[in-house]
Amino acid sequence: MSKPQFEKEADLCAAFIEAATKDGTWKAYPETAGFDILLVRDDGVQIGIEAKLALNAKVLSQILPGHVSYSYAATGPDYRAVLVPAGKDGALSSVCAALGITVITCRGDDPGNRWYRNYGPELPSTRDVDARDWHEWAPMKRCEVPAYVPDVAAGVASPVSLSVWKVKAIKLAIILEERPVTRADFKALQISPTRWTDPYTGWLKKTDHGYVAGAYLPDFMAQHPRNYEEIKADRDRWMPPAAPMPRNPNPALQEAFL
Fold first, then answer.
1. Which residues have C-beta within 8 Å of that of residue 1, sequence separation ≥ 6?
2. Domains of the chain (ranges plus CATH)?
3. What global pTM score does this model have?
């Protein structure tokens, strides 16, 4: 039996991302907006992609949007696609075409391969879109994209995704390294304080000068080490100003944050 082109879906995704983003026109966001890969073109156009080692009904159910009462796919990418290894598209390709889903096939590394790309069809460009391959979904609103490319691998089981909410949560955790957070910080970062300040979660502990880290605050640095450092490096751009301390602060609390 011949060795498969890709052992895991993560290998398939990694090979495709490397090839698809090579010229800088497209940026890949792994495990974003509910997709294995969200490709974003430099003008904002999006392709939502689900990957499988063979084209089957399960991946079709994953790539199709859920039905909502007021509109079908009101929020989503401009195009939807499934990614499979070359030769694994099968008879369901015609079903995908009828549903407006593009089937992207990707080849493994081959030193003797003279093809310009190791995947097909060609991604839609600003000048030309082949309507036989790409089907415009025309969403009312595109997927929300985080300000940082997630430091997770695409196509892995149970990924820890970097959502827009997670970026805000990391910012709060960085503030907590320096001082207590206040209601003004939540407002500045546009994040709801409900989950954070609920005493049953144990994420934060209330003090006279704001909230400090509680015993059960999630370890966001462990979840996203690269993104954590990237966001921290940008602190001068997003850090809310600290609230003025009282004239006679609690010495113990003041010492803890010096």
1. none
2. 9-120 (3.40.1350.10), 164-256 (no CATH)
3. 0.82
